[in-house]
Amino acid sequence: MKKILLVITILVFASCKKEAIVDYAIISGTIENTTTQKITIYSQFNFSNSKEISLAEDGTFKDTLKMATHSYLIRQERNMTEFYAPKGSAIHIEYDAKKKDSTLQITGDFSSINNYMIAKAKVSIEEMGDEKELYLKSEKDFKNHLLKVKSAQEDVLFNSANLSEEFNKKETKNINYGYFSEIGKYELYHGYYSENREFKVSEKFLDALKDLTFENEEDFLFSGSYRGLTEKLYRKKASKMMETDSTLAPDITYLKGIINIKSDMIRNKLLYDDVQFGITYTEDLETYYSLFANASTDIENNKKIKEAYNNLKKLALGNESPKFTDYENNAGGKMSLDDLKGTYVYFDIWATWCGPCIAEIPSLKKVEEQFHGKNIKFVSISIDTEDAYDKWKKMIVDKELGGIQLLADKNWKSTFVTDYMIKGIPRFILIDPQGKIVNSNAPRPSDKKIVTILNELNL
Hints:
Elements: H1 2-18, E1 25-32, E2 38-43, E3 50-54, E4 60-65, E5 71-76, E6 79-84, E7 90-96, H2 100-103, E8 105-108, H3 111-128, H4 131-135, H5 139-159, H6 165-193, H7 217-222, H8 224-244, H9 250-258, H10 264-278, H11 285-295, H12 299-313, E9 327-329, E10 334-335, E11 344-350, H13 355-359, H14 361-370, E12 376-382, H15 389-398, E13 404-407, H16 415-419, E14 427-431, E15 437-439, H17 449-456
Parallel strand pairs: 1-7, 11-12, 12-13
Antiparallel strand pairs: 1-4, 2-3, 2-5, 5-6, 7-8, 9-10, 9-13, 11-14, 14-15
Helix pairs in contact: 3-5, 5-6, 6-8, 8-9, 9-11, 10-11, 10-12, 11-12
């Protein structure tokens, strides 16, 4: 009898071990000829969820991924690679960093899906062709071109071996959503490349999108194109509301639209995607945060946004400004925030690689000239990395940049940048002669509001 009980106990224990849930995927690989010491892996569902992995001297790496997704993106310098790795799987990635597209290999579990993704990416690039040439086509020719791309992608899917019926079904819909997504971009991109910002598509051009529904959680989770289409739908609804009421704020109006989405997953995702950055830009922090907090049911997201909200309240009008010390001054020596006391300061946080930042330079020069000799200093703080030091120095000369030109000590991780919760640049900040905040998110030089604000200060 004891032997029987022992056997039963062993079988039960073995059964329990077999049912153990693995909540991670294993990724390993080798990247040859790379100059970087790390790679970053992002969740395709939530790009704010990422993990840095160090590379060994020979370019090898191995780690675990515990993100709530099956689809990932690996970034190594400028090389981007998508891969599929559900929890419980193990995959291996190899390529030469100097010729990634021709050397990329993904083996291990789900290699059939990963090989399909590689083939699809390759044929998509080949068939899409030059972006400018594509979007300058007429509406009819543009759609015909997209249909050829779509057909080529479907051929790759049809000819790929060992794909499950479930994956085939989801990916077929994903290809279709990709087609619709490109159609939705046409108006904006055609207007940009044709230099006709007033361009509007014909009345029936977007008819195919009218039959789409945007409450499908399975599609939302699987397809990035479907997620993009869903967001665009609510952005468009917000824009239409503002057409009839010019007093509505874009960010507030958008949130008011998505808080009524029935699906927790879709609502939470769209809310967080907007608020994680938007909360640092909104002009109505209390309303904006309240809309999010009352509608989001994601505990982790709520914690992050509440922390951001509490930190942003410290940046309100009249509070003392966060400080910086010993930033390199292009004119020579070092400078700290305290050195600027006694005058208003209009800060421009920028970088040489930032196109929108450079686009603001002509307007900034005009504002500087308009208020020359007044009780205000214009201070530009670059968050360029060390390897762009010479580029920073050169651009100051080439662009004839005025004002005070400083270089932050730790680029994005500089205390001044993180204390002001700067998530994107250019960013403009206005403080008073006592070092207190006037506006932690001041209008850009190209916005006429900044001149009105400065005039009201009686500089």
